[in-house]
Amino acid sequence: MPPIKSAMEIALERTKDISSEPDALAKTENQRRGKQLLAEFFHEFQDISKPEKPELAAQKLQQELGKLAKKEKAWAKEGMEQVLLSNIILPQSTDSLKNIDAVEQGAIILGKDESHIKSLFQQLKQFLNQYLDEKINMRNDLEQQFAPRLRQKEQAYAQQSGQHIQMTADSDPEFQKYLQQGLEQLQQHYEQALTELRSHLKSMLQ
After folding, report:
1. Are 41 and 58 in contact (CB under 8 A)?
2. What is the pLDDT of residues 77-86, one digit of tens each?
3. Are 128 and 91 in contact (CB under 8 A)?
4. How far is CA 206 from the centre of its chain?
5. Measured between alpha carbons, how far is 18 from 24 in angstroms, rounded to an integer?
6. Which of 82, 154, 155, 163 has its CA 20 to 30 A from that of 22?
7. Residue ranges of the alpha helices (H) in 7-164?
8. What values do phi and psi take at 166, rounded to 5?
9. Cα(80)–Cα(78) distance, integer angstroms
């Protein structure tokens, strides 16, 4: 049987929990504030209506962080870090790469070594563009492989129905199946490498 705690021990434990609660609440609140500040930074950084927006957005973010006490600032940066890392994902198209410059600038503001962060993002941009290129190449190669099959299906359909139609890869379930399998394998391969890049960047932000 575990030892019975005295009334004093129980009271001290409760006091400890109460005293730590404000810090927990403050941490959550400042992490949330950091996320909000970075979201505002991203929006202003990408505002194409004014060419000076990126510089102004960076200055504003630094000013807002400068207003916080040391502990609050550290918590806010934790929230910002979470948002930054969550925005480093595999792109669906070239349009998805538009955010990467804002993410890079945010990392520079949070990090300690600007030159190393810039070097990492140069690698990251090449990596993400390579992923998009491989997606396109995979689709093109598969379309070439399936072209004879589609022509055979067209002939078979014409013999059965007496009608001539042109089949495309996009309308062929078999093609879509093989394409999806290939894309999933490609994504899995790149996700593993991207996880390492995120981990490397995280170490630069701490």
Report:
1. yes
2. 999 999 999 9
3. yes
4. 18
5. 10
6. 82
7. 7-45, 53-66, 70-86, 100-110, 114-161
8. -105, 120
9. 5
Closest CA to 65 of 114, 94, 17, 106: 106
> Using one digit for the tens of pLDDT, what is the confidence trace for 101-111?
999 999 999 98
Q: How far is the CA of 90 from the CAs of 95, 137, 138, in angstroms?
A: 12, 16, 16
Q: Are 172 and 143 in contact (CB under 8 A)?
A: no
Of the candidates 27, 26, 114, the residue with the CA atom closest to the CA atom of residue 78? 27
Rounded Cα–Cα distance for residues 6 and 133 (Å): 68
Do 201 and 117 form a contact (C-beta atoms < 8 A)? yes
The amino acid at 39: A
Residue 14 CB-half CA count within 13 A: 7
Name the token pair of 18. 């109460």
Hunting for tokens 């004014």 — which residue is that? Answer: 50
> 179 with 139: CB under 8 angstroms?
yes
Mean pLDDT of the chain: 86
